Amino acid sequence: MSAASTAEPAFVAKTKTGRVTDFVDQRVGGSGILREFGRKVFPDHWSFMFGEVALYSFVILLLSGTFLTFFFDPSMAETHYDGSYVPLKGVEMSVAYSSSLDISFDIRGGLFMRQVHHWAALLFVASIAVHMLRVFFTGAFRKPREMNWVVGSVLLILAMAAGFTGYSLPDDLLSGNGLRIIDGVIKSIPVIGTYISFFLFGGEFPGTAVIGRLYMLHILLVPALILLMIVLHLFMVVVHKHTQYPGPGRNDNNVVGYPLGPVYAAKAGGFFFIVFGVLALMAGFFTINPIWNYGPYDPSPVSAGTQPDWYIGFVDGALRLMPGTFGDWQVEQTWLGFVFSFNVLLPALVPAGILFTVMFMYPWIERWITKDDREHHVLDRPRNAPTRTAIGMAGFVWYCVMWAAAGSDLIATHFSVSLNDVTYWLRALFFIGPIIAFIVTKRVALALQRKDREIALHGRETGRIVRLPHGEFIEVHAPLDEYKRYKLVGFESPEVLPAVPNEHGVVTRKEKRRAFLSKWFFEDRVAPASPAELEAAHGHGHGHEAVEAQESAKSLSR
Amino acid sequence: MGNHSDGSPNHSGTVATAGQNEVEKFQDPGIPPHRLRLADTDPKAAKRAERQVALLFGISVVGTLIFLVAYFAIDLGAEDSSIATIRLQNMLLGLGTAFAMLGIGTGIVHWAKALMPDHEVSEERHAIRYEEDRQAAVRIVDDIVEETGIKRRPLIRNTLLGAVALAPLPAVAIFGDLGPRPDDKLAHTLWAPQEGKLKRLARDPDGTPIKASDVTIGSAFHVIPEGLNDLHEGKLNEKAKAVVLLMRLDPASLNPSEGREDWGYNGIVAYSKICTHVGCPVALYEQQTHHLLCPCHQSTFDLTQECKVIFGPASRPLPQLPIAVDDEGYLVATSDFKEPVGPSYWERDMHERSIDS
């Protein structure tokens, strides 16, 4: 075609690498992708790394887990141990347990890989949890990220599922007792509980099927779902672009940070190796889950001080806290000839149910209360959203009380106190703890906001004490530069939205409830300092009393 | 210093002089001026940073070598290998990997922080959705729906919905063989007399029968039914229901209820070891207080009150196994448990009534 001949001559790469790159590029369109993402800007903050830790732990889990599958045999057939761990020689056990011991003692590097895998699993769930706390307390779940918050919550549940199914695989005494507890909880489910138990275990507990089934879930179904969710999660991160902390030059219309290439990619990429290195260090030096100490699963013995992995702890703790009897009255009830084991059902389902329901719905709850449909890309400092921060802390404390309850026996033995008293105290804290946490957190947040105001208006304390000519001592305050000041004053401070009638002129009951909650949320607020106030503070020079007098006159007049 | 934040008592700390919309706000001063790093201005510092990065990469190489040496030089199969050998190898593998990884990781991060440009840049965000796109998408969907004719042909739509709704049923049904029906399996244990022969109480785990005279006051035995160890299939399933704790107390301290006076022998009583809460073994016997404690969730049962729950999350007492002594002086179970053992389940009460009748 003549048009082609007049166009620029086709690009010909000069080096060999160049030719290979060009070959691929012409077939996949890499240039366009690189042009779009190569310099994409990412905000930088240490608290943004928790999600990265989670992602990297997952990669390490896949790598170490793949190694383990080469040697692990998920069979519950009986065998007699013939490996090199002498204390268990000749002991009857399942093939699963025997092959776990072989991985630990007879395969070079096997113990190391097992420990890396277990530590990475603990870190995986922990980093997801901390990442979610960060997202919650900074309000990063607000529009347009509500759905990504839900995907993240699903990931938390999947991570716990992956952890639990893996925890049970070695078929040692500890994990067997864990399964026994799960079986007991399942059996308490009304109507279908017994059937679910028989279907899961392929008959009566423990049966010979459950390890193989959990193995399939652990290495295929759950990781596939996690991977799918991670893809969704990251896809949405790309669509939304990352949030940023408030500060000078940052607003909801821009994103300030480092370009992906090279700085951000180098930092994030390097961080993978750091996470891997730290996990390797932990695996090398700290024993985790020494299954050889527990022995094979047997329904009769149990070791005192048994603990689930940390992320299941809060459910186990809730099970421990629930009283089974009040005097002679049994919590378990028989109605119409059928058993309702409320002493198991309630603690197993209700606290976790409340936590996860509120967690999933929270973005919509706050959205409804604030009627806020704007996009938010600038994060809140936790102190600038006192009620939200207080709600988060209340939930966190509630979780921690249940979590601590899972170690009630260890608390009792370590601190030489009565086990029963520990339980009574934790039962009380289960109800009071979140309330105290709410009140304290809200007050602390408001106090910090006031402190911010003071610093913004009067500058920071320099530590220099000066004696005035008339003998008064004052501490000299240095004014902030405008960048530092903007960080303290540049935030939104929503106010109470009173109930508004709808199009028929009626204030609905729902709207009244919303207004009530709005009042509860924003009634106590410390407004950001305004330029006028700063002017007032400066205008009176160092006459602090004058400023104070004017301030209080102002607030009284409102 | 200033008392700005207290406000008046009626305003709960609010000092705001007006709603945020009315108050003039501070202007955003923009991104703070960039400050140069030492390595930006001093070529020597840059060179030093370069060497530090290279050193960190070098440490990584050493780590990889440590790993390889530890892997190949330490032989787990050797004659003198012991737990200490494995521990040492594990430690060195960990150390090697840690150096190899941390060397690369810290090296790259140091490189990025010290030598790569650290200018913060600002990029505009774009709308996630544009109105124009939305309208185009709606038109496309309308066209697609129109072309399928699904609105005009409800017969097709309804039959398709019906077919799709039913199609997953086989996928549910096919899981029907995951396990057998429970029936009344949970209501029976190995303790039931077989062909008129009463089962002896045997020691766990070796299975030797226990004589009444072996059980002194204050002692406790972990017990399995005689013959359990000879089972080839379902041994653990049976054990999970049949394990029993055997204790001897001063007969005066036992307070058997009506109908259960002859379930013990001379102060010897046997109770199911499976917790009625969620099924852990109730393995701890507090001899002085006559309490049984479950180590999993701390349910506590009082032996002197027929294992009534006195603390913790369990609701029901531990089931008692009626025992007696046979001609040779061995302890035997006179019958199976009179109620299902272990954690409660939906049909439990039904099963208990059918055992009674």
Automatic annotation (TrEMBL), chain A:
Residues 20-246 form the Cytochrome b/b6 N-terminal region profile domain. Keywords: Membrane, Transmembrane, Transmembrane helix. The keyword Methyltransferase does not apply. Residues 535-547 have a biased composition (Basic and acidic residues). InterPro entries: Cyt_b/b6_N, Cytb/b6-like_sf, Di-haem_cyt_TM. Pfam families: Cytochrom_B_N_2. PROSITE patterns: CYTB_NTER (PS51002). It comes from the Bacteria. Residues 534-558 are annotated as: Disordered. This is Cytochrome bc1 complex cytochrome b subunit. It comes from Pseudarthrobacter polychromogenes.
TrEMBL record, chain B:
Coiled coil: none annotated. InterPro entries: QcrA_N, Rieske_2Fe-2S, Rieske_2Fe-2S_sf, Rieske_Fe-S_prot. Pfam families: QcrA_N (PF19297), Rieske (PF00355). Residues 268-332 form the Rieske domain. The chain crosses the membrane at residues 53-74, 94-112, 159-176. Its main location: membrane. The keyword Iron-sulfur applies. It is a multi-pass membrane protein. SUPFAM superfamilies: ISP domain. Keywords: 2Fe-2S, Cell membrane, Disulfide bond, Electron transport, Iron, Iron-sulfur, Membrane, Metal-binding, Oxidoreductase, Respiratory chain, Transmembrane, Transmembrane helix, Transport. It is found in: Cell membrane. Belongs to the Rieske iron-sulfur protein family. Iron-sulfur subunit of the cytochrome bc1 complex, an essential component of the respiratory electron transport chain required for ATP synthesis. The bc1 complex catalyzes the oxidation of menaquinol and the reduction of cytochrome c in the respiratory chain. The bc1 complex operates through a Q-cycle mechanism that couples electron transfer to generation of the proton gradient that drives ATP synthesis. PANTHER family: CYTOCHROME B-C1 COMPLEX SUBUNIT RIESKE, MITOCHONDRIAL. This is Cytochrome bc1 complex Rieske iron-sulfur subunit.
